[in-house]
Amino acid sequence: MAEQTVIEAVRQTMLAEMKRDDSVIVLGEDVGSRGGVFLATDGLVEEFGENRVIDTPLAESSICGVALGAAVNGMRPIAEIQFADFVWPAINQLVGEASKVRYGTNGVKNAPMTVRVPYGGGVRGGLYHSQSIEVLFAHTPGLSVVAPATPYDAKGLLVSAIRSNDPVIVLEHKRTYRLVKGDVPEENYSIPIGNAEIKRPGSDLSIFTYGLMLHYSLQAAEMAAASGLNVEVVDLRTLRPLDEETIAESASRTGKALIIQEDTPAVSISSEVAAIIGEKCFFDLDGPITRLGPPEIPPMPFSPVQEAAFMPSPEKILDAINKLAQI
Amino acid sequence: MSATANQSSKTSNTTGRLSGDRLVELYRTMVLSRYLDERVWLLNRQGKAAIAASAQGHEATQVACIEATDPSQDHYLIYYRQFTAMLALGTEPEEMLRGFLAKEADPMNAARQFPLHGAHPRVDLFNFSNVIATQLPQAAGVALADKLKGSDAVTIVFFGDGASSQGDTHEAMNFAGVHKLPVIFFCENNRYAISVPLENQMGIESVASRASGYGFPGVQVDGTDVLAVHEAMTAAVDRARAGDGPTLIEASVERLLPHTTDDDHTRYRSADDIEKMSDRDPISIMSELLKRSDLLTDSQDESIHANAKKRVNHATDTVDAEPYPGVESMFDHVLEGSANGGNS
User: What is the CA radius of gyration of chain B?
Assistant: First the structure.
């Protein structure tokens, strides 16, 4: 067991999976000798050569379209989108095409491809290096979407994504890459897609969250504990399919649901989690389903003052906990 | 049947590698394609086929293109106008009619998609989408996989002149050029993107000329000329199999019918333009070539037409009587193992 950062867990996982299976290839912008702009692919081209670690032209649609074509012809590509903000040119190849390969061919073809997408803010990224882009993918039948927040989960879910016989979007929060450390077993393991995890058990109130906000929520839960509140924190981990069972069980048990996300709230993951709780837990709740997210402005200002005002923080989450707990 | 393709070269400026017998076979496929094509338009007017595009005018180019390939190993990313290519690859008329009539036994997509979309279970031909040009980057990926596997297979991707305007077309050709991939970009240029004529689609004369911008050859060919298309394709296939990279082939053809059964081309094409197209009908051109080369008699030609009609009649009767899929199967194949219920 070694302590690793999230980015190191991602890198080590790709290294191990490429050693295990020759059909696993990596393609994206600057993934070769540069090792990726976040160094997720550092050392891979030296280990596996330019045939399996492909520095692509700067063109996201073809990165994903080529990955899709290679996937239907026996490869297991891992496409890297440099920043989530740059994924839009590739949306058609993912949402329009990859999601429907199995369904549209009645199972004759399938696309075992992984798309790694570094996303999220709080990194002084401004409007085009901060975005949360999960909603469009999570809305799409035929895609799976995972959003690990810890090194352990980053490895386990990336293994599941790479070995899946269908397309999986892996959202990696940029701020967690080096900020979050944790123990990662060296041996092989995987975490099933579609399983949320209770990261902190509690009895007074349930927080549902993912990504960087998991860590802020855990901090807020610790602060709340000082005043005697016992807050449960559920890490959604997979955004499609959402783990309805774990969500409903937790909300029903504590009777209070607080959903925290970094993405703007309108028509979002928090909307869906709220709907699940509303449908399944109505008679068990003793407070309104509550959501905390940023304001409805384009994410997110470059100004450090405005960025901080935009992002949810442990303090804002604590405030929301206290308000809901008092009801 | 002693004449060879070479002897007919005076009419086509080419020296094909096709035997007389093969040429007659290709003609047989073209005629079958024409009858099937006419039939699905009829079925549309009867209210039985919701939508049909047409390959009428494209038959020669498709049949000659496929003839230069190896269906036992090559990959074919087709688009919606590929009746003749599909028949040439061994798809049965019944299988295609099941798509047009949205019947349960449709082998390509189980009646989930427009006709001729999906993937064929026997030959590696597929067409995932109605979104124009998405198949080009995918074809580059298919070819990339073959290169990594050390396979001899060649990928052929078909598209129209309309698709040549898409960004995906540029990205795919650029990627394929960088990696010298075994892929052939085959453009069937019928001069119209639905209603928009070529001069409003591009500021240059030909699609093929763009190949120089990607570092591989671009070839223009008369798409009504089976021998010329076959020769250009043979050279492209040889080049791809030898590891020398992609070729862009632009075959000029006529779209004898409107874009689809929902279109009316008299709204945007002049009567003169429409009238002139009949001179470039590949069925007539091929029939005349075969007769001039003593490969086909009038009575054999009549027999080919009669058999094609009979074949299409039989297929229509068979498929028309088949059931539509039930509701249950619409939940199948969303994800692996999701036979019932999809993913939430």
Answer: 20
